[in-house]
User: Fold this.
Amino acid sequence: MSNHLKSATSPYLLQHAENPVDWYPWCEEAFERAREENKPIFLSVGYSTCHWCHVMAHESFEDRATAEILNKYFISVKVDREERPDIDSVYMTVCQAFTGSGGWPMSIFMTWDKKPFLAGTYFPVRPQHGMPGFSDLLKAVAAQWNGRRDELLDSARRIVAQLRQTEAVSENMDTENLCGRAVQMFFDSFDSVWGGFGSAPKFPVPHNLLFLTLYAGQKDNPGALKMVEKTLTQMQKGGIFDHIGYGFSRYSTDQYYLAPHFEKMLYDNALLIMAYASVYVITQNRLYLDTAEKTAQYVLREMTSPDGGFYSAQDADSEGVEGKYYTFTLDEIIDILGRERGGQFSETFDITAEGNFEGVNIPNLLKSNALDADFGAEIPRLYDYRKKRSRLHLDDKILISWNSMMIAALSLLYRASRNGKYLQSAVSAQTFLEGNLSEGLRLSTSWRDGKASQKGFLDDYGFYVAALMELYHSTLDRAYLEKAERLCGEAVRRFADEKNGGFYLADLADTELFMNPKESYDGAIPSGNSVMAYNLVRLYQLTGKEEYGELAEKQLRYMSAQAQDYPAGHSMFLLAKLIYDNPPDHIVIALKNRADLEKIKERLPLLANVIAVSQCREYPLINDRTTFYICKNHTCLAPTNTFQI
Assistant:
C-alpha cells in the first residue's frame, strides 16, 4: 500500500512511501485532519542515509502492528531534515530541552497547532537500556491524550513559553580575547596522541581547523598549526578516510580515527577539502594537497550529477550491514592482488586474518605510517572489485547550501593546485544552481527529479554568497561579486533581526512555526549567522562600501555575545573576526591588457582581496604597464609594476 508520501521527491520520504503507516508530508492537510479527528501529531524527522533512521523504520514503521497503533491514535508526519531545516531546528531544540540530547531519527509528539508535548529520538521496538518500547510509548501517549489531556497541553504551553523567551544580551562582553580563549579550549581538549579534540566519537569539524590555521599564521602560534597538522594527518591515515575510493566518512566511532560511521556527506568532504588545501598552501606538504585532490576525485566521480550539481550523501549500509561495502578480508585482498602484492598491501594497510573491525578489515595506515606507500596500480583494482558489491543508497537530492560549500571548496582547491578541472566543476555546479534553484533573488533549498522546493533559508543564502565570492576570487569575474552583493542584500532583507541583531533561520514573512530560531553555534557545519558574519566582512573589505562595514560590525557584536560562554563552538565567526581585525592584503590591479590577468592570478595570496580594473584615472598605469596598488597591515604601498607575495 502507498501512503501520502508517494508523490514526494525527497529520497527519505520515498523510503517510507510503502510503509503501512499512513504518513503525511508536512502539510496543512495533515494538521487539519488531526484537528478534525481530535488526534495528536506524531512527527518523525530524519534523512535518507541515517543508520538509526533505517533501524527504527525496519523495526517499527514497517511493522503492521505498530502501524495500526499509529494510524488509530495519531496523524503521522514525516520530514526530511535536509529539506526543512527550520522544522528540524525548532523541534531539535525541543528534543534537547526534553531529553538533554538530540539526534536522528527525531520523534516528536505535538498538538495539531504544532506545539510539542513530548520528544525523543530513536525508540526500540521493545524496552531496552532504560528506553520504553515504541508501541508501549504510543499506547501510553494515546491514553494520556484521551484521559489526561490537560496535563499534555500544559506541558506544551510551558515548553513553548520557555523556548520563546527573549534572548539575553550580554552587557560585559569580552571581545578582545575571544579568539585566544577558543584556542586555549582547543589546546585543553586536544588529543596529542591520535589527533582531534576530545574523546570518541570524533567528528572532523573542519571549520575549527580552518580557524586554528588562520590564527596560527596571524598570531605566530606554531602550536595551533601543530594541532591542525596532527589532526589532518591522523584522519588521512585512519579508516575515516576511504583509502580505496577516497573521500571521508561522517565521523570516527573511536579515538584513533580507525572505525568510522561509514556514511559520506557532501558537506564534510567540502569543508575537509578546504582545510587540507589551505594547510597545503601554508606548509607545502604534498600529503595535504594529495588528500584534498583525492577527496575531490571522489566527489567528481561518485557525487556529481550529469548536469553538474552535487548529490547529498551516500549511505553507510549495504545488504543491511553498516560498512559492509567498505571492508575486506585478507583472502579477498590476496585473491584480487596476488600473494606478493596482496601481502605487501595487507601489511601496509593493516589487513589481517583476524580483522581490525568486527572480523573484517578497514584499510588504514595507522600502524604502518606508510604515508608515501605507492599502490597506484592496485587501488583501482580494489575499487573496481568493490563496485561490484551491492550499491550504496545515494541521496541524490541537490541542496543549494551543501552545493555552495563544494563550489567554494573546489574553487579554493583550484587556487591551491592550479588544476583547471576543479574550477570548471565549480562553475558548472554554480550554473546548475542558477538554472534550477534560483529565480531572481529567491533561492530554493533543494532540487530533485526536476522539482525545486518552495522555501529558502538563511543557510541557503549565506553559503551561496560565500560560494560566489570564492568563484570571484578564482576568476576575478565581477559578475560573481555583483551577484553575491545582491543576494547578501536579499538575505539581510529576508532574515535580519534589525532590533536585536543576528539573522533568523526562516524568512520573516513566511514563518509557520511557534518560533523562528537564530542559530549561532557551529555544529557539523558552520551556522548561518557565522557564515553571514564572514560574508559581510569579506564584502566590506573587497568593495569598501560602508553599508557592509556597518552590517559587519553589528553582526560581529551579535556573534561576540553569543560566543561568550563557549567561543570554541563558534569557529567560523572567529575566523571572520580574525579577518576583520587583521585584513588580508588588498590588491588593485590596473591592467594594461586583460591577457596579463591569467599569469597574475597564479601568484595571488589565498585570502587576498583583489580587484582588477582597466586603466582609469583613480588607478593610473605606471610606465604604461600593468600596475599593482597594494595595501597591507593597514598601510598602502607605492604603486609598482612588479608583484611579489
User: Anything to note?
Assistant: The first helix runs from residue 11 to 15. The chain is about 50% helix and 10% strand. Residues 29 and 35 are 10 Å apart (CA to CA).
